[in-house]
Amino acid sequence: MNHPVPLPLEAPDTSFLTSGGAFVRRTVLPSGVRVLTEAMPGASSTSLGFWVGVGSRDERDGQYGSTHFLEHLLFKGTRTRSALDIAISFDSVGGEHNAATAKEYTCYYARVRDADVPMAVSVIGDMVTGSVLDDAAFDIERGVILEELAMAADDPADVAGEAFFAAAFDGHALGRPIGGTPESIRAVQRDEVLAHYREHYAPNGIVVTAAGAIDHDRFCELVETVFQGAPNAAPLARRTPQPVADPAIPKLSVVHRPTEQVSMLRGSQGLDLRDERRPVLSVLNAVLGGGMSSRLFQEVRERRGLAYAVSSFAPAYLDNGAFGVYAGCAPDNVAGVVEIVDAEFRRMVDDGITSDELRRAKGQIEGALTLSLEDSDARMTRLGRSELGTGEFTDLATALERVDRVTTDDVLELARDLLTRPTITSVVGAVQQDELAAAIGIGG
After folding, report:
1. Mean pLDDT for all residues in the chain
2. pLDDT on residue 61
3. ∠362-364-366 over CA atoms, to 5°?
4. How do the domains of the chain map onto residue ranges?
5. 263, 287, 356, 443: which could form a disulfide with 160 (CB 3.0–4.6 Å)?
6. Which CATH class is domain 12-226?
């Protein structure tokens, strides 16, 4: 396979063999539910997930935090199972089950022995389709979520990350925190969360994926049982891009806290999921801050000892993304670390990367990609993100080929675009905004 496989919504059945010998099948059920499986030879366990194409960015006024709130509530009981019944179902077979809310999707997932797949499909399917959102459970879980937000608020790195995204996507739904805020969680009412549930959890908006020891036809039968009685419908259209305007000026956000260490993020808006330069970005990211041999790790930590942790990151969404650097350092070192980050940005813009750095980055990326797909969870997740995101499946061989085609000129060209964009900086710790702004030459 040397090109992505399209996953058109109107195609009822698709199947293909991956480069590693795994067989992928996709079936659109009459209800509009999309089922994707990847059979892994030799596996004796299965990872499966029920995906809903709704995330925190899809919430309206009065609903902020509802997607994450709903994720919690779906574990609290259905018309036929209590919260304890759900927990016992997986504990009694040694299985794992959990959920994740992101900015663009929600996933309820499990990993079990192949013999326990029918149970996992039945239980998670019941959670997704039949939760009661009990009033008492709602009030209890509100307290749990407030504790979760409080825990995140005690982590300076989390706070710096939220401040970075709020500044990078100012005025856009991508800039909102996934879990909401303490104020929005205290204010949101059960009826609003219930309306969010009924609006977004229709069968034709749900994707079910599985990887490992799996028989596609039997798996489809199990999923059809979950949605028995649902009316025939076409799959829900995929998300429509809503691009974010580029920030016109650099931004600095400082949250003063009396901590021993400062958490700092510095970067800009990045590349979206559909951008053909993402393989180039992966190389740039690896060279700049993607490992212990990266430029920033070597310069900031190894040569100067200014930080324990330093790395770069590049999350992507359907219509935008971000790119930046994270560092944790003493308050007195923040300006120095920012100076080094900016110097490395300029060096990459002026000179790009060397052929030796390109070779090492490719080896790092290609090795990490290959190793990640030894895990059925990763393959199950790849299916869900492919279906809900770009609408195409990218095989490992295709991904490796794209990385292998990257040249030093490609990296230089991207650096001159990406690393010259208006810079966003978020800092949490014992620093003063005015002093830091003056030290790094940026307005507040």
Report:
1. 95
2. 87
3. 65
4. 12-226, 251-440
5. 263
6. alpha beta
pLDDT above 70 (res 379)? yes
- Phi first, then psi: what are they for 344, rounded to 5°? -70, -35
d(CA 266, CA 424): 6
Cα within 13 Å of Cα(411), Cβ side = 27
Burial bucket for residue 418 (CB in 10 Å: 0-12, 13-18, 19+): buried
Segment 23-34 mean pLDDT: 98
Q: Residue 353's closest CA among 280, 294, 284, 421?
A: 284
pLDDT above 90: percentage of residues in the chain:
93
User: In CATH, which superfamily holds the domain spanning 251-440?
Assistant: Metalloenzyme, LuxS/M16 peptidase-like (3.30.830.10)
Rank 56-65, 79-88, 242-251 by mean pLDDT and report only the highest: 79-88
Q: What is the 3-state secondary structure (H, E, C) of 324-367?
A: EEEEEECHHHHHHHHHHHHHHHHHHHHHCCCHHHHHHHHHHHHH
- Tell me, what amino acid is at 419? L
**Whole-angstrom Cα distance, residue 312 to residue 253?**
19
Choice among 157-161, 286-290, 340-344, 436-440 with the minimum mean pLDDT: 436-440
- Return the ∠ at Cα 296 (arms to 291 and 301), rounded to 5°: 90
Q: For residue 49, what are the β-bridge partners? A: 109, 209
Q: What is the pTM of this model?
A: 0.95
Task: Please check whether residue 67 is in contact with residue 55, taking contact to mean a CB–CB distance below 8 angstroms.
Answer: yes
List all residues 6 or more positions away from 439 whose beta carbon is below 8 Å from its beta carbon.
334, 335, 338
| pLDDT, greater one: 372 or 442 | 372
Spell out the residues 6+ positions from residue 403 whose beta carbon is closer than 8 angstroms to its own: 279, 282, 283, 362, 365, 366, 369
Buried b (16+ CB within 10 A) or exposed e, 76-112: bbbeebeeeebeebbeeeebebebebbbbbbbbbbbb
Phi, psi of 311 (to 5 degrees): -160, 170
Query: 12-226 and 251-440 share one CATH topology?
Result: yes
Find how far residue 35's CA is from the centre of its chain: 21
pLDDT tens per residue across span 205-221:
999 999 999 999 999 99
| CA-to-CA dists, residue 326 to 160, 292, 337, angstroms | 9, 14, 10
